[in-house]
Amino acid sequence: MKAIDRKLLRDLWALKTQVVSIALVIACGIGGFIASFSTHDSLVWSREYYYDRARLPHVFATAKRAPLVLVERIRAIPGVSEVETRVVRDAQLSIEGVVPPMIARLIGVDFAHPPAMSRLTLKSGRWPAPGAKGEVVVNQRFLEARHLKLGARADVLMNGRLERLTIVGTALSPEYIYATRGGGMPDDEWFGVFWTDARALAAAFNMEGAFNSVLLRLSRNAPGAAVVESLDRILEPYGGFGAIGREDQISHKIVSQEINQQRVFGLVLPSVFLFVAAFILNVVLHRQVNAQRGEIAALKALGYEDRAIAWHYLKLASVIVLLGTAIGVGLGWRLGQAMTGLYTDFFHFPQFHFRLLPWVVLAGAGAALAAAFGGALAAIRGVVRLRAAEALRPPAPAEFRPLLVERLGYVRVFTPAQRMILRSLERTPVRAALTVAGIAGSVAILLAGTFWVDAIDYFIDVQFNQVQRANVSVGFAEPVALAARRELERLPGVIRVEAMRAIPVRLVAGHRHYRTALTALAEDATLQRILDKDLRESRPAPGGVLLTARLAQRLGVAPGDTLVAEMLEGKRIKAEVRVAGTVRELAGMNAYMRLEDLNRLAREGPLISAAGLRVELGEEPRLLERLKEVPAAAVVIVTRTLLDTFRTTSAKNVLFFTTILTAFAATIAVGVVYNNARIQLAERAWELASLRVLGLTRGEVSVLLLGELAIEIAAAIPLGFVAGYWLSWLIIALMQHGELMEFPLVILPDTYLYAGAVVVAAGVASALIVRNRIDNLDLVAVLKTRE
Predict the structure, then answer these.
(1) How much is the pLDDT for 752?
(2) pLDDT, the chain, mean
(3) CB neighbours (10 Å) of residue 72?
(4) CA-closest candidate to residue 546, choices 535, 534, 558, 533
C-alpha cells in the first residue's frame, strides 16, 4: 500500500465520527430520493400492468335504459374495437349488527361467460354458480374492512324489494383500484362493489333486453374524443349521462393524482436533502483540506504531484459518498417498501411490488459525488499552488480589530467571553452564514413535512363542521317532488330538513368543456354552505351559476361570461347560463345555482334529488333504521362515518411521513451542528488550550465554542421558519393540479414550535458530544506548535 493511501486510511479513522455523520445525511437524501421515485415508478408499473392484464376499457358510458339493439350501432363507431354492455345499480345495503346503511354497487355479470373487459381477479372463495339466486362476489377490501367471512349475508333494497345476498367470494377489479362513492375518499367500510348474476339483476330492475352501462375498447390511435362524442349521440335519446374517457374515470383519476403527488414529494424534499448533504460535505472537505496544508506541503516536498494530492482528497470524498450511498440504498429500499405498504391500503392491485430503480441510485450518488468533488477541488486549488516551504508555515493569524459594537462605544454591554464569541463570528461571516443556512434547511424540511397535520385538520374542520353541517344526507333514486321534504321531517329525531338537487351536466365554454353536476341549494340553506378557503360564505345569484375557481379556470371563464350547460338527465336541456361569480372551495370542481332557478332551467316542476338532515343527539340510530325502510332513499350517508374514514386514512399517512421527516431533519441538524463544532474545535484547539492554562475552567472554555453554535442555531430557526413556509407553499403549488381536493397552506404555532424544538434538541445532543471532547483535550499535545 502506498504511503498516501495509508494517510487516507488514517484520515478516515481520525474523522470517523464526522465521516459517519456526513454519510448519514447523504443517506437521508439518497434514501428519500430512492424511496419516493421508486415508489412512484412502482405505482405506475402496477397500474399499467394491471390495466393491460385486466383489459380496462378506454371509454365508459351510462344511460337510464338503452335497448341491446344499440350494440351494433355502437360497434360501428370508427375506432371502436370491442363493446360490452351491462346493468349497474346502486342500492341500500344492510348487514346485521351495523346500524348505518351502506351502499352496494350491483354489477351484473354472466359468470358462465366472463366479460372480456374489466376482468375480475378472484382473491378468495369461488365464483357464483351460473343462475344461482343471491350469490355474489364482493370487492376484497369491503370484506376485510367489515371483518366479514365468506358465507356472510347482506340485505339489499333492490327496486323497493329487500333481497338477501350471500357472499361466496372476493375479487379485484381495475375499475375499483380505488373504491369510492365519488367523494374522493376511500369508502371500504361503507361502499361495497357486488358482482351478481346478470339476469337476476336485470329482472330485479326491469332491465331485461336493456343496459345502462357500456364499456368500449378502442383500436390503436383511435380518436378518443370523437368516439365519446358519437357514443353520446347514440345514447342521448335513452337518458345517456355522458360518455367519459379513461382519464375521467373516478378510480383512474384518483390513482393518477396520487401518483403525481408522490412524484412531487419525490422531487422536492429529497432534492433539499441532497442539497443540504452536498453543502455539508463541501464545507467539511474544504475546511479539512485547509487544516492539512502542512501535510500537503510535506507531500509536495516528498515529490507528490499536484494531481496525486488532489486525487487523494477526492478519494476521501468518494469514500464518504459511497458509504452514504450504501446506507441510503438500504434505507430507500426499506422506506420504499413501507410507502408501498401504505398505498396497498388505498389501491387494490393484484400485484404491487416495490422496484428499485438503478438510475435513481446513480442520480443521487452522482449529485453527492459532484458536490464532494467540488468542495475538495475548491479547497485544494489554493493550497497546491503554494510552494512547499510556504505551505509548511502555519496560516497567518486573523487580523485583530474591535467589534462593531465596541467601535460604537458599547464595549461594556458584553462580557469578555461574549465579545470573544461575537468576534469569532464577525471575523468568519461566511462560515457562520453557511452553518446557519444548513441548520435552517433542517428546520425547513421538518416544517414542510409536518404542516400536513395542520392542513388536514383545517380541511376536516371546514368540510365537516362548516360546509357539510347535516348529520345525515339522503339521496333519492329518482328526482322526487319537493313535498318529500315533509315526509323526511316526520322521521324520528329530525330537527331540520334542507332539500337540494343535483343534475349531471357538461359545461361548455368555447372549445373547453367539463363534466360535473349543477348543485342547487335552497335559498335559506344552512346545512350545506358554500365557503371559500378563508371561510367567507357565498350564495348563487338569481339566474346565475356560481363556479369554483378551479372549474372557472379550467373552462377559461370569469364572472359575467356565459357558458352552455348541457343537462345529462331529464329532458336534456341545453341552455346558456351566466357566470355570476367564483368561489375558491377546498373540495371538488363544483357549480351552484338556486333551487328554483335550476328547476326552471330544467323545465321541470319543483323537484329535489337529495336532502340534508339535522338530527337530535342520540336519535341517529332510530332514524337510520327507519331510512332502511324508505324505498326511494337509494343512498344514505352519515357524515360522521365520512369523517371517521377521512381521519383514519389521513392519520396513518401523516404519522408515517412526520416520523420519517423528523428523523431526517434531526439527522441533518446533528450533521451540520456536530461537524461545524468539530471543525471549529480542531481549528481553535490551541486557543482553547491556552485559555485553560491561563486558568479558565472547562465550562468557561466550552462556552466560547458552544456559544457560537447557540447563536447560529438561534439565528437559523427563524430563517428556517421562513424557508419552511415557502417550501410548504411550493409543495402545495406543485400539487394543486388535482380536481378532488385543495389542501390549504396552514401552519399552526405548535408546528413551528415542534420544528424548532427538534432542531434545538439535535443541537444540544451535538453540543454535549463536542463538550466531552473539549473536556478531554490533551493540553500538552495541543499546545505544541511549529516554530
Answers:
(1) 92
(2) 81
(3) 9
(4) 558
